[in-house]
Write a structure and sequence with these properties.
Elements: H1 2-51, E1 58-62, E2 79-82, E3 87-92, E4 101-104, E5 109-115, E6 123-124, E7 128-129, E8 135-140, E9 148-153
Parallel strand pairs: 1-3, 2-9
Antiparallel strand pairs: 3-6, 3-7, 4-5, 4-8, 8-9
Bound molecules: copper (II) ion.
Copper (II) ion is lined by residues 67, 98, 141, 143-144, 147.
């Protein structure tokens, strides 16, 4: 009888140890999975930033004087290349309002692919997410449609 009790104690003890091990194992696995997910996200983010223009956001400048049709100043650079779904910021360094609005500059018709809305003098647009489908996306300023640029999505 005593022998049986001892056996039970040993079995109970072993069960407890097993349960504790199982709990700590289960406790470890999700955090490792989480860490891996975080790493993957970070790696993808870094890859995006790199292909979007060498370590950061792609920025297009609207230089001072670009509101003049005869000034010869336009979006700088006039063409930028980003990866699918990359982001672009427009930096208005002019003393007039400007937009970067995708669409047909000849008819000043927006196509809704992207639009900064009005950017005040010495203001920047929010980072705008570009389309994911590869191609050339022409944009213009709705206030000065002679200002024309292109975003190429690779
Ligand atoms: Cu403008």
């Amino acid at each position: 009888m005593l022998r049986e009790y001892k056996m039970n104690c040993i079995v109970m003890g072993a069960t407890m140890i097993f349960v504790l091990l199982a709990i700590s194992f289960v406790g470890i696995v999700p955090s490792e999975t989480l860490a891996q997910t975080t790493n993957t996200t970070t790696a993808a983010g870094a890859a995006n930033a790199t292909s979007a223009g060498g370590g950061g956001e792609t920025t297009v400048v609207m230089p001072l004087g670009s509101s003049s049709a005869t000034g010869g100043k336009g979006y700088e650079p006039p063409t930028v290349t980003v990866s699918a779904g990359g982001t672009v910021i427009w930096d208005n360094q002019d003393n007039a309002l400007h937009t970067a609005t995708s669409g047909n500059p000849d008819t000043a018709t927006p196509d809704g692919k992207f639009d900064t809305g009005l950017i005040g003098a010495n203001q920047q647009s929010k980072p705008l997410t570009m389309p994911t489908e590869p191609g050339d996306y022409v944009y213009f300023c709705t206030l000065h449609p002679f200002l024309v640029g292109t975003v190429t999505v690779q």
